[in-house]
């Protein structure tokens, strides 16, 4: 398979997005474990990075197909559209990581694809019916995290009346397992988004004659997201782990158990869920299960605002980048 310079640009952009996705998503994977004292940040991130490497290689490529074929008409997925979409998503994700807001790289990517496609081919370039299913999955995931975290914590509180504080030692150890499961689900779901973009670009450039994810793309995206998580976003880690409420081992275990179940399930079903949103909403659910005033809802308002502006902001940036790319000859 011979790739021209424009296609290599797309591959590089796709891997850069995947790395940044892991960097920003690291807080969602290990934030509650670090905050509860189960493991220090550096060891937790390295453990998660190792699990992230395995996730994309074990769970198939269903999410990649959703991203590569379920948002934009395949006939409109040119290299210019894909590069603009990725760079639009990267720009917003970089800003969010810098200010420490656990935003959704998935929302940013979907917004980037919509904006670039609209700039290239108008409203007919977007698969609106398929997109409705994508947004349903994106909206359902944080709702499940909130409700699931609340229910999980309530169940643990009922069991907890029969236990002593010594159980915290075991809960901390159990979080090593739950964190690894989250990392597997996160790596599988998030890395597949980069796979889908690169696979679509290979079709657009003529390097492949049909949509599929080559083995080298799968491995490269797995390495990129694993490196991103291992290096970790410390600013976002503090937001997720400390600013919402004070997390103890029982809370960390409930958050991670909820997040792991949702992310692994979404990866197997092909739903492009956002790990940041699921884990963050699970923290709010777990905290409110004890009492509503335990949670700093003003932090939640700031995070929700960031989620809501992600799609239109990434779409606008991607549209501008598409027109700039066309001006310099990228097709």
Task: Give a structural overview.
By secondary structure, this protein is an all-alpha fold. It has one domain. It is built from twelve helices and no strands. It has helices spanning 5-35, 41-58, 62-69, 79-99, 105-121, 128-160, 167-205, 215-231, 234-243, 249-269, 275-290, 297-327. It is elongated. It starts with a helix and ends with a helix. The relative contact order is 0.24. The model has no long low-confidence stretch (mean pLDDT 82).
Distance between the termini: 20 Å
Rg, nearest Å: 19 Å
**What is the average of the pLDDT values?**
82
Q: Which strand-content bin applies to the residues?
A: under 5%
Residue runs with pLDDT of under 50 for 5 or more positions: none
List the topology elements:
Layout: H1 5-35, H2 41-58, H3 62-69, H4 79-99, H5 105-121, H6 128-160, H7 167-205, H8 215-231, H9 234-243, H10 249-269, H11 275-290, H12 297-327
Structure described in brief:
With 331 residues, the protein is mostly helical. The chain has helices spanning 5-35, 41-58, 62-69, 79-99, 105-121, 128-160, 167-205, 215-231, 234-243, 249-269, 275-290, 297-327. It has one domain (5-326).
């Amino acid at each position: 398979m011979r790739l021209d310079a424009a296609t290599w640009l797309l591959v590089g952009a796709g891997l850069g997005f995947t790395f940044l996705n892991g960097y920003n998503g690291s807080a969602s994977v290990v934030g509650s474990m670090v905050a509860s004292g189960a493991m220090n940040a550096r060891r937790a991130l390295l453990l998660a990075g190792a699990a992230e490497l395995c996730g994309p290689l074990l769970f198939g490529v269903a999410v990649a197909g959703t991203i590569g074929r379920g948002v934009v008409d395949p006939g409109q997925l040119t290299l210019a559209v894909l590069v603009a979409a990725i760079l639009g998503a990267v720009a917003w994700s970089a800003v969010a990581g810098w200010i420490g807001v656990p935003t959704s790289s998935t929302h940013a990517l979907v917004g980037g694809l919509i904006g670039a496609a609209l700039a290239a081919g108008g409203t007919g370039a977007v698969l609106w019916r398929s997109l409705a299913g994508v947004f349903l999955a994106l909206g359902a995931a944080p709702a499940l995290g909130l409700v699931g975290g609340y229910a999980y914590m309530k169940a643990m509180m009922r069991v907890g009346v029969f236990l002593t504080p010594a159980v915290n030692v075991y809960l901390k150890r159990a979080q090593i397992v739950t964190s690894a499961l989250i990392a597997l689900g996160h790596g599988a779901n998030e890395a597949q988004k980069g796979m889908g973009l690169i696979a679509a670009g290979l079709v657009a450039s003529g390097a492949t004659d049909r949509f599929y994810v080559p083995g080298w793309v799968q491995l490269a995206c797995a390495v990129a997201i694993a490196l991103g998580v291992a290096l970790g976003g410390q600013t976002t880690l503090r937001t997720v782990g400390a600013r919402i409420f004070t997390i103890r081992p029982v809370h960390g275990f409930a958050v991670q158990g909820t997040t792991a179940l949702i992310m692994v399930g979404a990866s197997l079903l092909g739903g492009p869920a956002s790990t940041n949103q699921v884990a963050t909403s699970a923290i709010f659910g777990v905290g409110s299960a004890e009492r509503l005033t335990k949670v700093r809802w003003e932090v939640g308002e700031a995070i929700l605002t960031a989620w809501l502006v992600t799609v239109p902001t990434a779409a606008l940036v991607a549209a501008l980048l598409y027109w700039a790319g066309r001006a310099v000859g990228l097709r």
